[in-house]
Specification:
InterPro entries: GmtX-like
Structural class: mainly alpha
Helix content: 55-70%
Order of helices and strands: HHHHHHHHHEEEH
Largest sheet: 3 strands, antiparallel
Strand content: under 5%
Number of domains: 2
Amino acid sequence: MKPEELLEHLKEKATPRAAKTLEAIYEICKEQEQRGLDDFSIATIARLGHKRGVPKAQSIRNKTGEPYRALLQSFAEHNKSDKPRMNPKGEDDWIEEIENPKHKLLARIQAAKLAAANKKLREFVPPGTRIEVKDFQNEADDENRALNNLERRALEYIISDEFLGKWGFSISAYGEIVDDSGTVVLRSATVDAVKKALTFL
């Protein structure tokens, strides 16, 4: 029985929670296949799926984990078949060239995590979705970020003699706008900020 057929068969007798766990194990095993790997051991699948709803290795080994073990065994037997199987070439091929078994395992784990992250990313941003990033250094945005006449006149008025005289304000050495008693009305660097905005926007 093929793994996909066994999955459906096991789900028919499983609780909703166990069915979700079976689906998670199936997805991880399929990812192993797509990477050209034939490691469907309990330890490996439990490690790869610990954040995706797959139980710990010991739980899979327990009596209640029999359906999960059956699914893993199905994948293992299916991938030991003598029929020619396409070994996809991709960015993870270099892992098989690692001679140190420990390093190879670590590389496989990282590759699996990357594949899982990419899968989640595709769920948030479906393929073909156009994402536009605005770059304010781009000339196309100059018009959008420039002050219009009304905005410019408003800023000019803030530091004008007319405005300052009307309210008895003055500009301090720190770029503050203060009243006639020296109380700060607009904090330091306000005047400098307004002048910069008028110059560059």
